[in-house]
From TrEMBL, chain A:
This is Dynein intermediate chain 2, axonemal-like. The gene is LOC114664422. Keywords: Cell projection, Cilium, Cytoplasm, Cytoskeleton, Dynein, Microtubule, Motor protein, Repeat, WD repeat. Residues 502-519, 527-550, 561-570 have a biased composition (Basic and acidic residues). It is found in: Cytoplasm, Cytoskeleton, Cilium axoneme. It comes from Erpetoichthys calabaricus (Rope fish). It comes from the Eukaryota. Belongs to the dynein intermediate chain family. Residues 502-570 are annotated as: Disordered. GO terms for molecular function: dynein heavy chain binding; dynein light chain binding. One of its GO terms (cellular component) is microtubule.
From TrEMBL, chain B:
Residues 4-92 form the Roadblock/LAMTOR2 domain. The keyword Cytoplasm applies. Belongs to the GAMAD family. The gene is DYNLRB1. GO terms for molecular function: dynein intermediate chain binding. The lineage of its organism: Eukaryota, Metazoa, Chordata, Craniata, Vertebrata. One of its GO terms (biological process) is microtubule-based movement. This is Dynein light chain roadblock. InterPro entries: DYNLRB1/2, Roadblock/LAMTOR2_dom. Its main location: cytoplasm. It comes from Erpetoichthys calabaricus. Acts as one of several non-catalytic accessory components of the cytoplasmic dynein 1 complex that are thought to be involved in linking dynein to cargos and to adapter proteins that regulate dynein function. Cytoplasmic dynein 1 acts as a motor for the intracellular retrograde motility of vesicles and organelles along microtubules.
Length: 570, 96
């Protein structure tokens, strides 16, 4: 079909000027918005849409299988001799050597080499090129420049399948390159039959495999290296026996104490004593006894002490001991921490059991898990119980001179850093691993801290130098602090004594009135109720404080937004 | 022959020198002032080290060659002067 359009124009109009005329506006099309159509559309907030024309790539991580390395030595045997010379025969070798010495090339090269060597030797003798300049000036301690940190060095894992708690750690006394860890399942009667009894000695240079195994007849709860004889270790077992090992002689204990004479409960702590023979040690356990042993004769303890405050001398009233401390500078005194929160200081030289217990320190609410003396100030010691760590001075018996706040978790062990005598607040709390930490021990030079956990892994942390090197006036400061606190406690003690005397005076007068006798019986119940109320109140207030803090964290953000909106508006 | 002896004597008399070993290209000790087991150990170990060091230097630059090797340790210093056919090893305790 042909579409044609005919356009006609008169010939007389060709070439005439155009006459433009105005015309009113004519609406051609009017498309009204149809809101019903909008329903099939979705509104999008985003108006920026990035587009990239790049290859799609993905990231993937892999970890190779651990390479097992072992260090071994190589012994060299002579070789390289030409075929006709037998290296064993002296004659042939000397003949060969003489032949070589006569060659010309030998002489020539030797002269050159000799002069070269002489030059270097003289150089060495003239000046020590590796000399340390300015060695006398100690490096200026950058105090608190770096925030204190701790870095995990090694993780030593329990090689057995069934995991046991690493209950105690002991560093090798000579240089601290080895660590002895004892493993034991401390949950009452939950130990399965397959659980192995072994404990291990690890060498820090080979952290993948233990260097040596100790095989007792019952799991070891605590271990200690003999500070005089580095090959001997003493251990206390789960069944109450005490044994000792010699690492040169092998994995079996050299001797074990007889069950009848040993403790009736697991031995929680074993420590070596300072004696001329270097063979004495003593052990404490929850059956309330402290036994002294001479390892040459483990068939019966040399001495026995029953921890009984009322001084009756029988096993019934005794308090179970959970930790022990002994300071080498004070060889006759030692301290025991008990299950009911008391720390007892004892004197070994007392003649009767009554004299042996010299003083008691109360103040903890739960079993005392660790006791340590401060190596710089032997009169002060640290005790660690459930939620708190307290520092005590020997002179003030009523209460501790300093204590930390109630922590969230239970503290199970603590010890002094050997180089830094003052530690007030925990300057660093490190999350070492996911499971509960059970024991802690610091290496002798203070840099490395070993922690044992519930699942049997021992982690070695290296503490930053800010935390472990001694600062200049630190000793003086610490000294002042301890003295100040102990003075404060003494004053408090004196005041309390006065108050008590006054009360006694008053109660003497009031004894004639009988109703007062009925009061003491009720007051214990009242006291208990009051204590409970106070306890819950304290928890509630803590919780409220925490909630407030959380809210505070959220509110600053909202206030900032309001400000910004205000600015935009204005 | 006498020059060699003289050179060695001079070296031996220097301060701090603990021992001298002359090793040939195959690792056989020709002359030594130390006892046999020590000599054998030094000869074997240092020979390998010198060959490795030399090949390292020449790999980096084929025109280059190893002239001297010094191993400084906590207790002493081992100096090795290599040649095409022989090595001269001297163990010295640097004075300080």
């Amino acid at each position: 079909m042909e579409i044609t359009y005919v356009y006609t124009k008169k010939r007389s109009e060709f070439g005439s000027q155009c006459n433009f005329t105005d015309r009113p506006v004519e609406l051609l099309v009017d498309i009204l918005p149809d809101p019903t159509v909008a329903a099939s559309f979705i509104q999008r907030d985003l108006c920026n849409m990035p587009v990239q024309c790049v290859q799609q790539m993905s990231e993937h991580e892999i970890n190779t299988e651990r390479l097992e390395t072992e260090t071994e030595g190589v012994n060299h045997v002579e070789g390289g001799w030409p075929k006709d010379v037998n290296p064993q025969e002296q004659e042939q070798t000397t003949r060969f050597r003489k032949k070589v010495e006569k060659e010309e090339s030998y002489i020539a090269s030797l002269t050159i080499l000799g002069s070269l060597m002489e030059h270097c030797i003289k150089q060495n003798n003239a000046i020590n090129i590796y000399e340390e300049y300015y060695e006398e000036e100690e490096e200026v301690q950058e105090s608190t420049e770096e925030p204190p940190t701790a870095k995990t060095l090694h993780v030593l894992k329990d090689p057995n399948d069934i995991k046991r708690t690493a209950t105690s750690l002991s560093w090798h006394p000579d240089g601290g390159r080895k660590l002895a860890v004892s493993y034991c399942c401390l949950e009452f009667q939950r130990a399965s039959k397959d659980m192995s009894f072994h404990s291990y000695i690890w060498n820090l240079e080979k952290p993948n495999k233990p260097q040596m195994t100790l095989k007792p007849s019952s799991p070891i709860v605590c271990l200690d290296y003999n500070p005089k004889d580095f090959h001997v270790l003493a251990g206390g077992c789960y069944n109450g026996q005490v044994a000792y090992w010699d690492t040169r002689k092998g994995s079996q204990p050299v001797e074990m104490s007889i069950i009848e004479q040993s403790h009736r409960d697991p031995v929680y702590k074993v420590i070596w004593l300072q004696s001329k023979t270097g063979t004495d040690c003593f052990s404490a356990s929850t059956d309330g006894q402290v036994l002294w042993w001479d390892i040459r004769k483990l068939s019966e303890p040399t001495e026995r002490l029953i921890l009984d405050i009322s001084k009756k001398g029988t096993l019934d009233g005794a308090a179970g001991a959970t930790s022990l401390e002994f300071e080498t500078t004070m060889p006759t005194k030692f301290m025991v921490g008990t299950e009911n929160g008391m720390v007892i200081a004892c004197n070994r030289k007392g003649k009767t059991p009554a004299e042996k217990i010299s003083s008691t320190f109360c103040g903890h609410h739960g079993p005392v898990y660790a006791l340590r003396r401060n190596p710089f100030y032997p009169k002060n010691f640290l005790s660690v119980a459930d939620w708190i760590a307290r520092i005590w001075s020997e002179d003030t018996k009523e209460s501790s001179i300093m204590w930390t706040r109630y922590h969230m978790a239970r503290l199970s062990d603590g010890c002094w850093s050997p180089t830094r005598p003052s530690q007030k607040e925990p300057t660093l709390s490190v999350k070492v691993c996911d499971e509960a930490l059970y024991s802690l021990r610091v290496q002798d030079n203070g840099h490395i801290l070993a922690c044992g956990s519930q699942l049997g892994t021992a982690t070695l942390l290296e503490i930053s130098s800010g935390l472990c090197s001694l600062q200049r006036n630190e000793k003086a400061l610490a000294n002042e602090m301890f003295e100040r606190e102990s003075k404060r406690e003494k004053i408090l003690e004196a005041r309390r004594r006065e108050l008590r005397l006054k009360e006694r005076g008053r109660s003497d007068q009031g004894k004639e009135e009988e109703p007062k006798e009925a009061e003491p019986q009720e007051s214990t119940e009242d006291l208990v109720a009051r204590a409970e109320k106070e306890f819950f109140q304290a928890i509630e207030s803590e919780r409220k404080k925490r909630e407030q803090e959380q809210q505070k964290l959220q509110t600053p953000i909202s206030t900032v937004k309001v400000e910004e909106a205000g600015k935009l508006v204005s | 022959m006498a020059e060699v002896e003289e050179t060695l004597k001079r070296i031996q008399n220097q301060k701090g020198v603990q021992g001298i070993i002359i090793v040939n290209a195959e690792g056989i000790p020709i002359k030594t002032t130390l006892d046999n087991p020590t000599t054998v150990q030094y000869a074997g170990l240092i020979h390998q080290l010198v060959i490795k060091a030399r090949s390292t230097v020449r790999d980096m630059d084929p025109q280059n060659d190893l002239t001297f090797l010094r191993i400084r340790s906590k207790k002493n210093e081992i100096m090795v002067a290599p040649d095409k056919e022989y090595f001269l090893i001297v163990i010295q305790n640097p004075t300080d």
